[in-house]
Amino acid sequence: MANTQFAQKSQLTASSRTEALKEMSTEEGVDILVIGGGVTGTGIALDAATRGLKTAIVEAGDWAAGTSAWSSKLVHGGLRYLYNLDFKLVAEALKERGLLLEKIAPHLVKAQPFLWPLKTPVIERAYSAIGIGMYDTLAFIGARGKKTVPPQHHFSKQGTKTVFPDIKDSAFTGAIQFYDARVDDARLVVDLVRTAAGYGALAASRTQVTRVLKDAQGKVTGAVIRDLENGQEHTVRTQHIINATGVWTEESESMANKDAGLKVLASKGIHIIVPRDRINASSGIFTKTEKSVLFIIPWQRYWIIGTTDTPYTEDIAHPVATSQDIDYVLEQANKLLARELTRDDIIGTYAGLRPLLQPKLKEGSEAASTKVSREHTVTEVAPGMSAIAGGKLTTYRVMAADAVDFALKERAQEQPSVTENIQLVGAAGFSAAQASSPRLAQRFGWDEDRMEHLLERYGADVTELVALIDEAPELAQPLAKAPQFLRADILFAVRYEGALHLEDVLIRRCRLDLEQRDRGLSAAEEVLQVMAPELGWSEAEAEKELELYRKRVEAIAQAEEKTSDAQAAQCITSIEHVCPRVPLS
Q1: Vertex 200: Cα angle to 199 and 205 (nearest 5)
Q2: DSSP characters for 151-208?
Q3: Is 373 helix (H, G, I), strand (E, B) or coil?
Q4: Which ranges of 335-410 would DSSP assign to H, the alpha helix?
Q5: Which helix (H) or strand (E) holds 25?
Q6: Cβ-count burial of 46 within 10 angstroms (0-12 exposed, 13-18 middle, 19+ buried)?
Q7: Residue 55 · residue 201 · CB < 8 Å
Q8: With contact defined as beta carbons under 8 Å apart, do 89 and 375 qualify?
Q9: Confidence at residue 296, expressed as pLDDT on a 0 to 100 scale
Q10: SS3 74
């Protein structure tokens, strides 16, 4: 019975969102209100809900609409931090990597080999081997004596060519292979919020906090939230607000206190996508560049290549890659690739903003009311409200535990975090789903690639996908213009994953925005054929969704031809967007 209730609650739909808004707005209120639906906010919601706290989470856009959908999609310890002797930080991240690989989300997080190219044959190999050896040792200790990924492997120049035939001869003398992990970042966030909802969290996307409420003594007592789908406002009473809004941190916390809180600056990182068959290799590459780091990361159908690290002062809701950004990444990649890439090889680009935590708090914040980590900080904004910023995707669970501990204060010892032992939706029963996959493949005529794709998306929830197909066999059909996805994938996104708009599906549920040159526009009409009846859209409403997406695709294409962020931002800010945020007074 408990499992059935969890499964039902973890289904995010338009109606579940409406019910969540209604329940969080009752006079009783909630214990914790989380603002921000990225990996940190959804991690906090799961942490709080599994401690038995009545929890609500609101996000002004779609789940993962901000930074969390636009990372390098890596779960890693941070090898480069070892060179700064940040052993504790690396050990913490490697422990989290092991938990994600083995327990929390084994369907989403996969071990990924990388080559570290060596430019000198002896000295560099020696000190790199020591560094990577320490990396492996810290991972082994963090996993309590269990190997979660293979250890380092050394290659001669000829050996390197066997795993990366397309590497440029002049770029290396040999290489060391080590392992980290990769993840579809947006799916991780969706699975986090679904799991939180399964444990009772009230979750509402496209819902913006517009005002923070205080009592006569200045303690935060709640917030006014606006449903951006219909403009209705609700009041949420709460014991504590946790602000986890990333690059929106200062804007959000200023509703409670303009003079206290965290200082956050935005740094832009972009990536390009090229087809998998364009680079002949079975391993990724990681190396340092003059300005940042370079990852060349293999996925099932494509390569992700990045990144950049540049200050950003334009519209934080819609960062885009400029022509200058794209040329820089191509230049860095081509230093390593024998068959150099050109603009014609690129099938997609994306840009995201890292919230860089500044070393000083705002003047009104007290050091005594702040918990600082090497990567993230939690501080009091006002009595009854705190903010967390910094950190990285890999350590979201640690950040979440720190944020909830901070909110609970002395009660944290009585209600400790339990998320180290909480599996995300799709994780429980994943091994059994893998074992039964040949039978499913035979039944539906799916090849090995299709089954791998489905298991990495859904894990054990692939049985729920099959149930949809059993109800409506036509859902087993691949999309005509994007055959890597089934019509069932679209219905699952709406009926289980909280997709409310066409862009939610194309950008964050199926990621066609990344892997097709037209960002999935050619498949949009068929996607709408599945979505519209489920969401009760009229023909005019469906056409409006298509038009908004078409304008977005055109605007990004124009932005990619501009040389500056200001010019590129003008392209994207000049168009109409789905459920735009309301300006805060």
Answers
A1: 110
A2: --EEE-HHHHHHH-TTB-GGG-SEEEEEEEEE--HHHHHHHHHHHHHHTT-EEESSEE
A3: coil
A4: 396-408
A5: none
A6: buried
A7: yes
A8: yes
A9: 98
A10: strand
Helix (H, G, I), strand (E, B) or coil at 90: helix
Query: pLDDT tens digits for 253-275?
Result: 999 998 888 989 999 999 999 99
Q: Are 3 and 10 spatial neighbours (Cβ–Cβ below 8 Å)?
A: no
Which residues, 6+ apart, have CB-to-CB distance to 15 below 8 Å? none
Amino acid identity for residue 215 in this structure: D
Ranges of residues in the chain with a pLDDT under 70 are: 1-2, 83, 85, 123, 127, 359-374
Distance CA 551, CA 559 (A): 12
d(CA 147, CA 139) in angstroms, rounded, equals 8
What region, left, alpha or beta, does residue 78 occupy, with left being phi > 0 and alpha being psi -120 to 50 degrees?
A: left
How far apart (Å, rounded) are the C-alpha atoms in residues 300 and 434? 17
What contacts 24+ positions apart, CB below 8 Å, involve 405-408?
Answer: 405/371, 406/371, 406/378, 406/380, 407/32, 407/48, 407/240, 407/242, 408/51
Output phi, psi for 563, to 5 deg: -95, -20
Whole-number pLDDT of residue 151: 85
Residue type, 206: R
DSSP letter string over 451-482? HHHHHHHHGGGHHHHHHHHHH-GGGGSEETTE
pLDDT in tens, 145-163: 777 888 889 999 999 999 9
Q: Which residues face 442 on adjacent strands?
A: none
Q: Compute the half-sphere exposure of residue 76: CA atoms within 13 Å on the CB side of its CA.
A: 20
Across 108-139, b (16+ Cβ under 10 Å) vs e yields bbbebbbbbbbeeeeebbeebeebbeebbebb
Predicted pLDDT of residue 1: 40
| 123 phi, psi to nearest 5 deg | -65, -50
Query: Which residue bears the tokens 């020591």?
Result: 130
Position 198 scores a pLDDT of 98
pLDDT for the residue 129 = 74
d(CA 492, CA 464): 8
Give the pLDDT confidence score for residue 409 in this predicted structure. 96
Per-residue pLDDT at 372: 46
Query: In the numeric block, which tokens belong to residue 181?
Result: 């992990």
* Tokens linked to 101: 């690989």
* Encoded tokens for 137: 């040792």
The kind and range of the H/E element at 500 are: none
Angle at CA of residue 541, ends 517 and 570, nearest 5° = 50
Q: How many CB atoms lie within 10 A of CB 373?
A: 18
What distance lies between CA 160 and its chain's CA centroid? 32
Work out the end-to-end distance of the chain between its first and last CA atoms, rounded to an integer number of angstroms: 47
DSSP-assigned letter for residue 277: G
SS3 136: helix
Residue 477 is which amino acid?
A: Q
* β-sheet bridge partners, residue 112: 180
Residue identified by tokens 């109606």 is 15
**Quick one: residue 29, left, alpha or beta (phi over 0 = left, psi -120 to 50 = alpha)?**
left
Q: If residue 381 lies in a helix (H) or strand (E), which one and from where to where? A: strand 376-382
The candidate with the shortest Cα–Cα distance to 498, out of 199, 246, 31, 186, is: 186
pTM: 0.96
